[in-house]
Amino acid sequence: MDIGQSSHPRRKTRQIMVGDVPVGGDAPITVQSMTITKTADVEGTLQQTYDLALAGCDIVRCTCNEIEAAEGLARIVPRSPVPIVADIHHNHRMALAALEAGVHCLRLNPGNIRKPEHIKLVAQESKDRGVPIRIGVNGGSLHPDLYKRHGDKVTPEAMVESALMELAYFDEVGFDDVKISVKASSVPLMIEAYRQLSEAVDHPLHLGVTEAGPLPGGVIKATAGIATLLAEGIGDTIRYSLTADPIEEARAGRALLEAMGLRDRRNIDLIACPSCGRAEIDVIEVARKAQEAFGDQQIPLQVAVMGCVVNGPGEARDADLGIAAGNKKGHLFVRGQNVAVVPEADMVDALVEWATFINEHGVDAAFERAKSTRAHARREAERDRKALEGAHGADVNQSEQKVELIRKL
Ligand code: SF4
Fold it and tell me: Which of 271, 273, 327 to mutate to test the pocket of ligand 1 (most atoms within 8 A of CB)?
């Protein structure tokens, strides 16, 4: 097994196309989010769609809850940088209107559109137009009959049954261009529902913990559910449902896939030490400023902010680029090798400037650039490292002193 890869092979699913984005099969796992503008607000929705795409979103969903929203979709779809999914809840006519608007996929909630003739009509129309549907089961809006049949409880079995019932209606009109989700706000419930669903069907699965809530708890809950399943090889597309700016959903989704080695790095991977008694700067503040300065720039490098030059360059030697503080200076290093020294106040600017340079010209060019400064940088770092060690001693947290005191008790 390659370190950094999931221990379980990815479960085999059939592949569908959402616009020009493949979902399932051997396609990369995709990131989705949803706009929170009124879909009738064409310019506002398009702006948010562009922002989401920039933040790493592959597919964007917009609500289609009224006829004005469907009209908005007709204007949004041709100008969108990514495929658009129309979210349909109670009114099957909105699904037909969204298809007319040219959307790339529908999301139907089986708990909300219940009449078989309506479900089959939408499936037939989708089939005729070659548009896929996501069956989006939601633990909070299960069909009342199913809820009753499963002991007045939302169970994994009830959620899977809801998806299979919808699939059976689709089957009646020969439609199977489908992906499925069985989301719940309970992490253990959604994990079990997806596990059961993945045994029952080979359709691509869209993962999510619904109503995960605000940051940071929402990200933790969503990650717990989504990452657990991905590590088991389950899941073809993901969405973080956060009570936050949807840009955060896109960033979180992308960051998770990159962290799990399931997508290539696209943006900066900012690592930073947790800080300790040795820190020469406010690491939290400098890391925050660095994160803000890099924003969503597409620089696929790992960049480190380290609180001290004593341990920083060594601990972050695998990073492409890093900076460590010491004696009011910032010691810049590339792949663990000191390349330059900058004033402490310029640490973030220097980091962004060197990252941009490496992204454009490569690591070898960075070493070439540092030809005349490397020796000086190394000497300065060594001098500051020794000075700091002298000032703080090797045991900066006085652990050994405390151990001695404990032994004397
Ligand atoms: S890099 Fe320095 S400041 Fe940061 S945790 Fe390590 S020893 Fe502490």
Answer: 273
CA-nearest residue for atom 8, ligand 1, is 276
What whole-number distance in Å separates Cα of residue 85 and Cα of residue 74?
12
pLDDT digits (tens, 9 = 90+) for 262-280: 999 888 999 999 999 889 8
Structure token pair of residue 33: 């989010």
Across 25-70, the runs of DSSP E, i.e. the strands, are 30-34, 59-63
Element holding 88 (H helix, E strand): strand 84-88
Question: Nearest-CA neighbor of 396 among 297, 279, 298, 285?
Answer: 279
- Alpha carbons 25 and 339: distance in angstroms, whole number: 45
Ligand 1 atom with the smallest distance to the CA of 396 is 7
Return the H-helix or E-strand segment holding 21: strand 21-23
Of 167, 91, 183, 165, the closest CA to residue 133 belongs to 167
Q: pLDDT of 227-258, one tens digit each? A: 999 999 999 999 999 999 999 999 999 999 99
User: Tokens representing 79?
Assistant: 């100008």
Q: What is the pTM of this model?
A: 0.86
Residues 6+ apart with CB under 8 A from 379: none
Name the nearest CA neighbour of 131 among 162, 100, 110: 100
How far is ligand 1, taken at its centre, from the CA of residue 333, in Å? 15
